[in-house]
Amino acid sequence: MRIWAVANQKGGVGKTTSVVTLGGLLAEQGKRVLVVDLDPHGSLTSWFGYDPDTIAHSVFDLFQHQGKVPEGLPAQLITDTSCPGLSLLPASTALATLERRMVGVEGMGLIVSRALAQLWDDFDYVLLDNTPSLGVLMVNALAAAQHLIIPVQTEFLAIKGLERMLHTLEMVMRSQKNRLPYLIVPTMFDRRTQASVKSLNLLRKTYPDQLWRFAVPVDTKFRDASQAGVTPSSLDRETHGVRAYRHLVDEMLAQTETVEAR
Length: 262
Ligand SMILES: Nc1ncnc2c1ncn2[C@@H]1O[C@H](COP(=O)(O)OP(=O)(O)OP(=O)(O)O)[C@@H](O)[C@H]1O
Ligand SMILES: [Mg+2]
Description:
Residues 1-180 form the AAA domain. This is Chromosome partitioning protein. InterPro entries: AAA_dom (IPR025669), DNA_Partitioning_ATPase (IPR050678), P-loop_NTPase (IPR027417). This protein is an alpha/beta fold. The protein is built from eleven helices and seven strands. It has a single domain, classed as Rossmann fold. It is 43% helix and 14% strand. The chain has a seven-stranded mixed sheet with strand order 3-4-2-5-1-6-7, with helices on both faces. Helix 1 (15-28) packs across helix 11 and helix 5 crosses helix 6. It starts with a strand and ends with a helix.
């Protein structure tokens, strides 16, 4: 099992879209893929037609056992999606109350890790979607993940947000005594606008080693796919946005192999 977190403290940068698109593409390649919604807003859950306000079982259930994860519970929480080979561990809006409840609970930062350990042989890839704020859920994701994707919108304010995210990452990694390799993925790139082009150049200059060499273009098909409740590649295999994410999947598979070869 390889576990990738997709995170950025900045909102609306394409985290959920990246999780669904990458998950769909990996599933199309025959991989067994699990996407996990760690955002109390439940956008990933809603994408696949489940209502985070009323859903009976979700990631929330994992946090109800004093830092332990009962045997068999994670598997019971998983549901199907419209995409064969792609499973979902959904969120419920109750997750918003976690910060308050989990204060001082031993092992609270390792719940997602422990849950995924139980599913180790059931999935090839796990993608963790995150809420745009640092809290117990993001700490769980960063502790469980082996790789991190940081989507960044190609505009100046978003680049400021990236600095904040990297600072947070540094802090969390120091406390977890862990090093997480990360890949910065420019999103919503519009080559016709100066703002997009300039910010991509700035990203290239500032993060030459961590920046993915391509960018995900602006593509309205992503919104169409979320409205239809399907993965973008099942709506349109060859749209520009999907093609870009296909390159990113190649990069992910290459990084996975490098790690496994060590
Ligand atoms: N490459 C893209 N081109 C055009 N629109 C996009 C692209 N990626 C995402 N979007 C749209 O931008 C909006 C925000 O995307 P998304 O929900 O994936 O971001 P997010 O980082 O998960 O947001 P949040 O922080 O609120 O969870 C959505 O309406 C989505 O359809
Ligand atoms: Mg989201």
